[in-house]
Amino acid sequence: MITLIRRNPLVAYFVIAFGVTWAVQIPALLIAEGNDQSLTNDENLRHIFDLFRGRLSGAEASAFLLFILGAGPLVGAVVVFAATSGRAGLGDLWRRVTRWNVGGRWYMVVLGLPVALAAVSVLAGLITGSLDLDSYDALLPASYFIPFLLYMLVFTGVWEEPGWRGLALPYLQRDNSAIRSSWILGVLWGVWHFPVIIYYNLTVTEVEPAVLIPILAGLVMGTVGWTIVNTWIYNSTESVFLMVLLHGWYNTVNAFLVLPFENMMVATVNAVLPWAIAVFVSKRHGDDDLADRPRATLPVGTPNGST
Q1: Could you tell me if 224 and 190 are in contact, meaning their C-beta atoms sit under 8 angstroms apart?
Q2: Residue 305: is its pLDDT beyond 60?
Q3: Residue 232 and residue 278: Cα distance in Å, rounded?
Q4: CA separation for the pair 199, 212 (Å, rounded)
Q5: Chain-centre distance of CA 291, in angstroms?
Q6: Per the confidence metrics, is the pTM higher than 0.90?
């Protein structure tokens, strides 16, 4: 197994990332369907509270615990670094995961960008007349904001970013431009979400199966645009810590400012806007690096030996 990983670390990473996540999340979703149980992020926070209060049945607890074990990207990064470069690779990953001192400017970008995207999306709905503010139906009480943010930071940020940006992106950028690497990673990142998206649309929103095709295509394209934005931030800072923060914060802002409206115009604008930023970044910095510094690659001693 170690030999196979060393021969093609990137393929091994994606196999592990997909395999671990899908192997636990698909059974979890099937169990949840039998329980008439939802495993959306907001409901999962409630499941944590109910688990500690002893309010979950055995089947409900099994579905929830299985689902949150789907940290395939994190597991993939740790396994591949351990197999290919041992302590040196894991140490380098840890340094980037804990690299927080990147300047106040980038914290303003990471914290301000999701809020700006949500605000413009809601404003677009109001201007076009497709959105009524009275339609806001909160997924969670406002008092849950901080607990939900912490949940998102761990179970989306930490669970994913050491893999997507900690290993896959800099590895891809060894032999590909930043924009090409972003397209490859964005498509795969989008597909990685397919089981949850398919389950949600078929069982919760109850869309026709044929409608899934444009939904999944839109998901992938939206993910590619957002991945290009993420690449710009990562290549400018080489901080996985910042990417964890962005991932958790973005999901939290969306959960409180975008998703409660259940409005197609708002959701569409929110998915398209990152492409405007991506085009701007591409024009300003160029597709090779998508930053004002050389694109980030893995150092000597990590998968495949050299940059």
Answers
A1: yes
A2: no
A3: 8
A4: 10
A5: 21
A6: yes
